[in-house]
Design a protein that fits this description.
The chain is 49% helix and 2% strand. It is mainly α and 202 residues long. Helix 3 crosses helix 5.
Length: 202
């Protein structure tokens, strides 16, 4: 009788033991040496977006990561510059409203003193134009995912050796990741209010 109770207790305890995680070793080993898998974290995919994914899926996610990183770098820098009081000179419309008459940050798009709807539509159409016709590999000459030079812009890239190219791409990737966190932090702090170093009053 005691052995039956012991076996039942052992079986019920085993029900609460964590199930073995079925790691897809093929996906992990396939991407752990990719650019961006850097110390101290290495390859990090907590949501399992690359479980059983091929190279095409990885390249698509890397393309999106690079593009969002570039956008966030521009957004973060733009936020810092406008909060420092530097604005485009002149008027934003024919009514005589100057660029510096509008608030900084997210308040420029949402709120009582935001940019007029026509201005927002111009921004949306301009970004759409860039997305559809410029910020992609139009000519098929790209060396890597995210290479949008299209045979026009070079800035000496072709003069670098392969090690320098990988280093610069890794730096861009890390700066983009930091900028994504940075602009998110600025937007949150803007809603919370207060003051930040280098940024000033939110």
């Amino acid at each position: 009788m005691k052995s039956v109770i012991f076996a039942a207790a052992l079986a019920s305890a085993a029900a609460f033991a964590p199930a073995p995680v079925a790691q897809t070793a093929t996906a992990l080993s396939a991407f752990e040496s990719e650019l961006g898998a850097q110390p101290p974290i290495g390859f990090w995919d907590p949501l399992g977006l690359l479980d059983e994914a091929g190279q095409g899926r990885f390249d698509r996610l890397r393309y999106v990561e690079i593009k969002h990183g570039r956008i966030c770098q521009l957004a973060f820098l733009g936020n810092i510059i406008t909060r420092a009081g530097l604005h485009i000179p002149g008027d934003i419309d024919t009514a005589g409203d100057s660029f510096d008459s509008y608030p900084n940050g997210i308040s420029a798009f949402f709120g009582p003193d935001s940019i007029p709807t026509d201005g927002k539509l111009q921004i949306v159409f301009f970004v759409g134009f860039l997305e559809l016709f410029v910020m992609k590999d139009v000519t098929g000459e790209n060396e890597f995912v995210g290479d949008f030079r299209n045979g026009l812009l070079d800035f000496g890239w072709d003069n670098f050796d392969e090690e320098t190219k990988l280093s610069k791409r890794a730096i861009e990737l890390n700066n983009g990741r930091a900028a994504m966190m940075g602009i998110l932090g600025l937007m949150v702090h803007e809603k919370l209010g207060g003051e930040l170093p280098l940024v000033g009053q939110m």
